[in-house]
Amino acid sequence: MSSEFDSTDDKRTANNAVRHQYRELSEDEKMRIERLKDIGAAFIENCDRIGTSRELSLAKTKIEEAVFWAVKHVTS
Q1: Rounded alpha-carbon distances, angstroms, from residue 33 to 11, 17, 53, 55, 67
Q2: Is residue 31 included in any domain, yes or no?
């Protein structure tokens, strides 16, 4: 049985994937996020150097998605 909360109650964000509040990140977490984003940016830059194509566009989109999910892991 699921619990119900008022739409303005702080408890409503507890198990919500679309958070409305965020916690403060540690310096280690900030470093991890920066490293993940740097790796993703480097990969995209390498793709840009070798040309343009539908395949490379898809690859870059997937890289962006991978970085998103990795950062979400760190911030969860």
Answers
A1: 27, 19, 29, 27, 9
A2: yes
Residue 7 CA to residue 13 CA, distance in Å, equals: 10
Domain count, the chain: 1
Q: What is the pLDDT of residues 15-34, one digit of tens each?
A: 666 666 667 889 999 999 99
Of 66 and 5, the structure prediction assigns the larger pLDDT to 66
What is the b/e burial string over 8-27, where b = at least 16 CB atoms within 10 angstroms of the residue's CB?
Answer: eeeeeeeeeeeeeeeeeeee
Q: What is the SS3 assignment for 62?
A: helix
Could you list the residue range(s) of the whole structural domain that residue 41 is in? 25-75
Q: Is 70 among the domain residues? A: yes
